[in-house]
Write a structure and sequence with these properties.
Blueprint (H helix, E strand, L loop, with lengths): L1 H37 L1 H22 L2 H10 L6 H31 L2 H11 L6 H6 L3 H26 L2 H25 L11 H6 L5 H24 L4 H29 L4 H37 L8 H25 L5 H26 L1 H39 L7
Helix pairs in contact: 1-2, 1-7, 1-11, 2-4, 2-5, 2-10, 2-11, 3-10, 4-5, 5-8, 7-8, 10-14, 10-15, 11-12, 11-13, 12-13, 13-15, 14-15
Length: 422
Amino acid sequence: MGQRTFLRHVQRIGAFGASVAITTVVGLLAIPVVIANVGKDPWGIIALGQSAALLFGVLVSFGWGTVGPAMVAGLPAAARPQMFADSLVSRLYLFLVTAPLAALTVWLIADDSVAVLACLAYLVPFLGASWFFVGDGRPGRLLVFDTLPITLGTVLGLVGLVLTGDVYVYLAVQLAMNVVGITASGLLIRNRSLSVPRFDFHVGRAMRRLRGQRHGVVTAATSSLYVSTPVLVVGAVLPGALALYAMAERFFKYGLTAVGPVVQVLQGSIADPDHALQEARIRVAAKWSPLAAALCAAVMALCIPWASILLSQGNIQVGFDLSVPMGVVFGAVAVSQVVGLACLIPLGKGKALAVSTVLGAAIGLPLILVGALAFGVSAVAWAVAISELAVAVYQLGVVRRHFRRAARNAGPASKQVPVQRP
């Protein structure tokens, strides 16, 4: 049974990993093509728009992208489509409010319409159903209806860029394909489900549905705030270093994408109705995730310098002064992904998860601003590293305190000797 369970987890990681692999490979190949055709500075502007989309996308997804997979997995199959329909309506209203704010923000920072179009193109996927397919255990649907439209948008956009030399063509094609992807996902869930969901567009009810997402959105918002803000700050304070920082950060983000399937499988496999089995799994995950993350962090720190030269065709060279803190950021975030999403949520510690991200933002945002204003781009990366380490340490501390408290509560009971009656 143990071997079959292990093989099943490996198969699930491979199935979800196919989407990750395709997205990562195409994204990496896009970097040298864009830089070769429009230059490193426009590429940096596109990266700024992407970071803004990640920041404002939290307001669109409103926590469903963070805690949605576990919520879907915990529902009966017949109830899942209605949950998605309700979330989609709420997120559509949020998008209508958020998109203009995001566009205005990047325009004020970059004063460039390329950044605006990039921000809108990468904001649209937050209306998608990737989190629903993960929770529903449908890696095939995730690949066909979420990953492929996004990937085709990038590939076709690159073809348009090479043929026309126009960066607007590259971004417009991606925007169009992203819209096609979210439309196809919504239609699939509506038409191929056990029960046909009803789309309720009443504004009041759509907003009231957001109340149950408070822990998820606080977690996602604060985490995205101090992860996406550095690129915006560097773009505003150190515009000459924007492409350099964006290149280093891009490797961090692709690293997180690579560990995503592992986190997704852990989210679905750690939680268990058997309380003792669940806690045993959490102990293992909390014990080994820091060691695995430290190894991955070291590999990333060593790889970024030569990989940045390779991908940018020699136009951008990231030194160890930037690659080392970015590796630390990756390792710390990998730990918090596993411990926060796969361990704290099954323990009912959603509030602690939100508190940890607020703590990281409270530490990181002032350090990022001071680093950019006084010390330079590498100080910005170290500021993010310090904040992410604080988040990971706090979450591990919550797990440790939980088990210590459980051991103390079980202690007296375990020492009681039953009285034998004559």
